[in-house]
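Reviewers of the previous submission asked for a worked example of the structure-prediction workflow described in the proposal, so we include one complete record here. The input consisted solely of the amino acid sequence. No template or homolog information was supplied to the procedure at any stage.
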Amino acid sequence: MTILIFKIILVLAVFGLTMLIAMYSTWAERKLSAVMQDRVGPNRAGPMGLLQPLADGIKMFTKEELIPEGSNRFLFIIGPGIAMLTALITGAVIPWGGDVNIGGESYALQITDINIGVLYLFGVVSIGVYGIMIGGWASNNKYSLLGALRASSQMISYEIAMGLSMISLIMMTGTLSLREIVAQQDAGFANVLYQPLAFLIFMICAFAETNRAPFDLPECETELIGGYHTEYSSMKLGLFLFAEYINMFISSAIMVSFFWGGYNFPFQHELGLSPNALATVQTVVFFLKVFGFIFLFMWVRWTLPRFRYDQLMNLGWKVLLPLSLLNIFVTGVVMYLTGKLN
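From that input alone, the workflow returned the following structure tokens.
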């Protein structure tokens, strides 16, 4: 098997899994919220409502599509596409498991391992705001425009703290490659033990970047009807909503890779497994960690109330930003005193 064929298969597998997990995250969230609110949740489409995501997809595709008068038709259509595209291409640099052996050749379960993987992630994330901003502005609706402005200011504000929180981790690991960051957690402890504050800041920013409660101000229905996607219908609305769940899944995978050992787990090399068996177990462990974070995203949504907008901005600029700068300073001092910083 050539590397090109393997990569094509891996791309299709990652795309399919991403769509499947995002699709059933909608079902899981509705079930989880039902349990927390003493309700039943989806129970009509299939056993335990397992066919509900499929029914929702059919409904989205078959609903009437409306484009408001006075809107910019091209930008109105392309906005959801940008949101969906940036959500999907982020997974290209994530290492999903260890190396597999096929026909005597070793292949990494990663679409591409670029030496600036961290910069790639932040570059794609920064582009993602354009989908929301363009969609809201092109709708020719004041509520949509306000939601788009909220989204852009929120995402830009929290990207700064998120990026600064990563500097301390990069100082410690000395690399921008995600695979190398994960590999360094093989022999020792997970990075979260060395950088707990960086992880906490990164996780809070991930909630804000994905517009998840309590940071869902861009689509605050009590103030803005539906926010930036108020005028959207049919599958265009579905793409915006689906992109949120894909971003939640990818954000969980990134946090697992950066701070929680990625696909590594304790005593994995003492099990005596073959390379392929070990890679399979590592991939299962990786997804179990990811599902844990997805559960956390959902748990927080149905537990904490929404912030006011001034509280959201104060948290980003007055709390998280100074803490991330302090963490960089402390990390530098500790590395200098221990001789790890030249």
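Residues 3-337 form one domain. We consider this example representative of the routine output the project will generate in years two and three.
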